[in-house]
Design a protein that fits this description.
Elements: H1 2-16, E1 30-32, E2 38-40, E3 69-73, H2 82-93, E4 104-108, E5 111-115, E6 119-121, E7 126-130, E8 136-140, E9 146-152, E10 158-159, E11 165-166, E12 171-172, E13 178-180, E14 192-197, H3 201-207, E15 228-238, E16 241-244, E17 252-253, E18 260-265, E19 270-282, E20 293-300, E21 302-313, E22 318-322, E23 327-337, E24 351-353, E25 359-366, E26 372-374, E27 379-390, E28 395-398, E29 403-413, E30 416-419, E31 433-439, E32 442-448, E33 458-460, E34 463-466, E35 478-480, H4 492-504
Length: 505
């Protein structure tokens, strides 16, 4: 009898402790196949959620490497180290590029490097490496709003004369990689091109950005200011059908001027540069000091670069700021902490992106206004993945004037993520963006609206409050799984990257 009772008790306990399987759910726009591959379901117009996996250093096709050290520097502990560092950089800049595209790494040994001005890297193939945030410290000393470390090339994006052709399709949907042009004989595989989407008066009018409620300084949108140039590379030419390496991320309609394609060059950009493994701080006089280090690391006219394993403190604007002329940069495993400035506009944009095809992942930020943010006419795809923000003072998301094609994937914040018509904020921010995708994010609250023309914005599996945004009466974005955990895949970026790698084999 005792044996029976013991057996019964064991069965009851086993049943009681049976693990509860997590219930998964899928979007109606993306289905996960049995082998983990993804199936994209188009909307009524043919738009799909775009593939965001082709971003960052060499678009994710090349691993960030550990570059061999060619120069070692020790801090000038008794004075300013700016000349010491700049001389080392200039010395390495004279070395030839190796077969792998690098001149070499400059190792900053353990110590404190005080810098009164700005350190400039203007040649390809140079990496600044510290011995870790608890060992190598750079300090922006003294006064003056400035960027401390600047990677910069020269030149500009140029159209190759005589190569511009029209896209013939009446409608080019979001997510597609191909379209038909009037004459593809001008193009070949490997060509760098621009997909050019003109701004038109009709488009501005339909967006209602010609009648933003005016206040002092408000500027209505003008069509000529919204000629968008998406940088792409040709991967296939079949007759007059052209296939490109990254998807279209904005609807292109003939009624709004359609689109064109032309060959392009940007010869002055530098590439294969990076900064890693160090702590970077700014001196400051008070919590609201405005006259000190502003940006820790800046990229201007750079492609295929990286930032990894850095922590920044006390800067007024950003840990990392990527200008519109830069692309294919990875920023990962880094922190922006304890900003010092007045808490108002134009400050505390912890990880700021104005460029194309960039990846921000595994980041932390505190005390910012706009932690993970894009600026006006920031053209994607761009990705923010697995990032955290605490003690926030404003919102995460596209900041103003039509950012296109951004994925906010697994972002956790004690504040807001907003995609909305910002109206007359600033000098007329208006519609912040289109094809902005929130995936499995956690927020205090979020507003995701879709513009009156040009496409949709999306919220998938957002945890937190939903609100109508700053301005009432705007169209709601597409929301699925509000406060519903267990979205499959848990990360869209990771799933898309795995899917692409699988298809490359």
């Amino acid at each position: 009898m005792k044996k029976i009772l013991l057996l019964s008790t064991a069965v009851i306990l086993l049943v009681s402790f049976k693990p509860v399987l997590k219930k998964l759910w899928e979007s109606k726009y993306i289905k996960v196949n049995a082998d983990g591959s993804l199936n994209y379901i188009p909307d009524a117009k043919g738009n799909i959620i775009p593939d965001f996996s082709r971003v960052g250093y060499y678009q994710g096709d090349k691993e960030i490497t550990t570059v061999a050290v060619v120069k070692t520097v020790n801090a000038n502990e008794n004075g300013d180290s700016e000349e010491l560092l700049q001389s080392a950089i200039d010395e390495v800049a004279k070395l030839p590029l190796s077969k792998t595209g690098f001149r070499g790494a400059i190792l900053l040994k353990k110590g404190t490097y005080k810098i009164a001005g700005t350190i400039n890297i203007t040649k390809s193939g140079i990496v600044l490496r510290g011995e870790g945030e608890n060992a190598t410290k750079l300090i922006a000393t003294g006064k003056g709003q400035r960027s401390l470390i600047v990677f910069s090339g020269d030149g500009n994006l140029k159209e190759v004369a005589g190569t511009r052709v029209q896209i013939q399709d009446k409608f080019v949907p979001v997510g597609t990689f191909s379209f038909t042009v009037s004459d593809a004989s001008k193009f070949k595989v490997g060509d760098d091109i621009v997909v050019y989407r003109p701004g038109t008066d009709e488009w501005v009018k339909d967006l209602q950005m010609d009648k933003i409620e005016a206040r002092d300084g408000t500027k209505q949108w003008e069509a000529a200011g919204y000629n968008l140039q998406f940088e792409r590379k040709i991967t296939k030419v079949e007759g007059n059908k052209v296939t490109i390496d990254n998807p279209i991320v904005m609807e292109m309609e003939q009624k709004y001027g359609g689109a064109e394609v032309f060959k392009a060059s940007f010869d002055g950009r530098i590439n294969d540069v990076g900064i890693e493994n160090m702590l970077i701080e700014s001196e400051y006089a008070s919590d609201v000091d405005e006259d000190h280090g502003w940006v820790a690391v800046e990229f201007n006219k750079v492609q295929n670069a990286w930032v990894r394993n850095i922590t920044t403190r006390y800067f007024g604007y950003a840990a990392v700021s990527i200008k519109s002329t830069s692309k294919q940069i990875t920023v990962k495993d880094s922190k922006c902490l304890d900003a010092k400035s007045v808490i108002t506009g134009g400050r505390r944009y912890s990880f700021n992106n104005d460029g194309q095809l960039n990846l921000f992942m595994n980041l932390e930020s505190t005390d910012a206004r706009h932690d993970y943010v894009t600026g006006a006419k920031t053209l994607g795809p761009n990705v923010f993945y697995n990032c955290k923000a605490t003690r926030t003072h404003a919102d995460i998301g596209p900041h103003h004037r039509w950012a296109v094609g951004t994925l906010f994937d697994n972002i956790t914040t004690d504040g807001e993520i907003n995609v909305q018509d910002r109206g007359n904020w600033g000098s007329g921010h208006g519609w912040a963006g289109v094809t902005q995708v929130l995936w499995n994010c956690t927020v205090k609250r979020a507003a995701v609206q879709s513009p009156w023309a040009g496409g949709q914005n999306y919220s998938f599996g957002t945890q937190g409050g939903k609100y109508e945004g700053r301005l009432k009466g705007r169209p709601d974005g597409i929301w699925e799984g509000e406060n519903e955990k267990g979205i499959n895949p848990s990360s869209l970026y990771v799933a898309q990257l795995k899917n692409r790698k699988r298809n490359m084999k």
